[in-house]
Amino acid sequence: MAQFHCLTFLTDYGLEDAFVAVCHAVARQIAPELHITDITHLVPLGDIRRGAVVLAQAVPYFPPAVHVAVVDPGVGTARRGVAVEAGGALFVGPDNGLLSVAVAAAGGAARAVSLTNRALWRDTTAATFHGRDIFMPVAARLAAGLPLDEAGDPVEVASLVTLPRPEYRVTGDGADVEVVTVDGFGNAQLSLPGAEAPRAGLIPGASVTLAGDGVAITVPFVTTFGEVAAGEALCYRDSGDWVAIAVAGGDAARLLSLRPGMRISLTVT
Amino acid sequence: MAQFHCLTFLTDYGLEDAFVAVCHAVARQIAPELHITDITHLVPLGDIRRGAVVLAQAVPYFPPAVHVAVVDPGVGTARRGVAVEAGGALFVGPDNGLLSVAVAAAGGAARAVSLTNRALWRDTTAATFHGRDIFMPVAARLAAGLPLDEAGDPVEVASLVTLPRPEYRVTGDGADVEVVTVDGFGNAQLSLPGAEAPRAGLIPGASVTLAGDGVAITVPFVTTFGEVAAGEALCYRDSGDWVAIAVAGGDAARLLSLRPGMRISLTVT
Amino acid sequence: MAQFHCLTFLTDYGLEDAFVAVCHAVARQIAPELHITDITHLVPLGDIRRGAVVLAQAVPYFPPAVHVAVVDPGVGTARRGVAVEAGGALFVGPDNGLLSVAVAAAGGAARAVSLTNRALWRDTTAATFHGRDIFMPVAARLAAGLPLDEAGDPVEVASLVTLPRPEYRVTGDGADVEVVTVDGFGNAQLSLPGAEAPRAGLIPGASVTLAGDGVAITVPFVTTFGEVAAGEALCYRDSGDWVAIAVAGGDAARLLSLRPGMRISLTVT
């Protein structure tokens, strides 16, 4: 496989320690010309679903790259480390579902290997820091042109762990959806693709009643936050083109008690 | 205009999401050799004044660059996107005053365009993410050498939105000033330039009484924090050479109830 | 001395202001090809010991580099600024102990200079921002090949300020140790090297009783967090190969009241 010039990095390592910098250093010792872009390192500790969604949101904007993601509560246990080829890119990380949303969005896994080639790892490998000792050194070598099948044993792509796909159903007068994720501003992305919004009656000017566990509010469907007053809730197609709920200048998740995984009925009136 | 090798980026996007990384990716797909320096992405959400001041604090230390700033509560509404030439640099962002403090500090706007050339935007443009879809792709092309006047229609520089300039007045025994901004440590920068301090009697060794809404305290005017005990308040010329208020090892804004925009009388005794 | 291609940067400047970006800009104006890796800028304000430990944790993973660290409550007072050569790398910062743990880990100081050559500083030097005005411009010139002895007057390496070395003692049935530092997750690194753990009886399968000021708990000694239930405390060899205390999915320092400097007796049962 050809070289990749770009590597992305997403973790739950936080920004208070040297963990992220150490991983950069390990990668650049192997591939000095590699450009590393940090996606985020503030995924809540161990929140695989949140990490998976943020990775999937970012990947489409990058050229073909090696995407390293590490949210890995099972580090050091029997879970596999994998490298997955999908849509011309490579995804490297634990096989716990973290990569699965981005891989699916990239067209699905074409090939995958379990990272069993210890010759590519750091000489000493800590049981709690595979990001530094396995994922990053293997990813840097893949970026530098190492063929995927030299990273380890092939695995059936059907055996890769995948997160359950958030569901939605367009109904006669709206849609039944799930909250997929909440961003740093408290905006709640729903499982309804923007392209499906018109079929559900969600068009600019519509009113939408949200009903769910502890939630009952009617909000306008708008194009921009500027169309409502500060502090007012709204429904819109977000920048990734998913239907989403926000509060202008406020935190919708907190104000409306929206949580990832929660089911909501949208009724257009 | 010649190429710029450096692009800076300042927003209120936060660090928990992929927003910043996606903007980097968009820029680097257009200008792969471009060096991007993040100034900060922790401007409080929608706080145009704070963003404007931090941008102005940073710009003088950069070589000629394209400075992209996005604190944009009106995204998607009628407010213009602009590119402004000032002091040999280019400033790209919403025309809401965010760029105005840095532009003024750079010698004022020489030329400006409204970013109306849609051929430079991303193919699909979200109403809520002009950073990704308009500002960054246009800025990357300007950095790569696109002439400013190809980015859109010329606008009168006098028509650009500017923030009110913080005022100060040197009095017989001190100065009347405003709090301009509060940094991450709680240090409060005032509207009095350091070069004016001696004329106001603010010289090392002086005592200064601060009087304002709920504030009444006398503090020493010093050169370094080390001259006072931990927890003690002080007045000094800060690293940008503005007169400022701090508490050694503490948060002056919180401890002394200092807020941006607040008026304070300084009396030297 | 040959050129360095890599400069690392660690401070307590935070991420809300332009301080870090301004230092990057200053360095790159002097050495445009220099690659700068930020280690962290979230060292608690003025916490020299925490900064020293994080720097020492990071350095071993980098190629020979110029390491700039600024946690400097005495900025502008009589404390020296220094550049220290150790283990083929250069360390630049205040002479307050911040560099000492990394320098010792790199084999000890071979040479050192006080940064007295004002020709290398920025033209105007703020008393409160030596990172921008002294440390970064000098470090960038050293990275670009300036001989160390041109940065200032030589100083005796024995005169450099060093932090007290955390102590440990292997006892008949365990070890007496100190808490060295607490990372962003609340994991507490102890002063006992991993290589000494077996001699203290700390081997997988052992039970360890921790006793200290307000602490009394028995935890398993394990290899990975996955071996205990969520919320359970554990003792292990961490990724830097120090013995450490953690809580699976939780904050050990908070839950067990562990603080840096605290003495703990480990008894294996």
Classify the beta-strand content of chain A into a percent band: 25-35%
Helix content of chain A: 10-25%
Q: From the helix content, strand content and strand pairing of chain A, which structural class follows?
A: alpha+beta
Radius of gyration of chain A: 20 Å
Biggest interface, CB < 8 A: A-B, 33 and 28 residues
- From the spread of the alpha carbons, the general shape of chain A counts as elongated
Structural notes for this entry:
Three copies of one chain form a homotrimer. In chain A, helix 1 runs parallel beside helix 4 (130-143). In chain A, a hairpin with a 4-residue loop joins strand 13 and strand 14 (242-247). Chain A has helices at residues 19-30, 48-58, 100-105, 130-143, 252-256; strands at 6-11, 35-40, 66-70, 81-86, 89-94, 111-114, 153-154, 169-171, 174-182, 188-193, 207-212, 215-220, 233-237, 242-247, 263-268. Chain A is an alpha+beta fold and 269 residues long. In chain A, the strands form two sheets. In chain A, strands 8, 9, 10, 11, 12, 13, 14 and 15 form an eight-stranded antiparallel β-sheet that branches. In chain A, strands 2-1-3-5-4-6-7 form a seven-stranded mixed β-sheet, with helices on both faces. Chain A is elongated. The interface between B and C is medium-sized, with 33 and 28 residues.
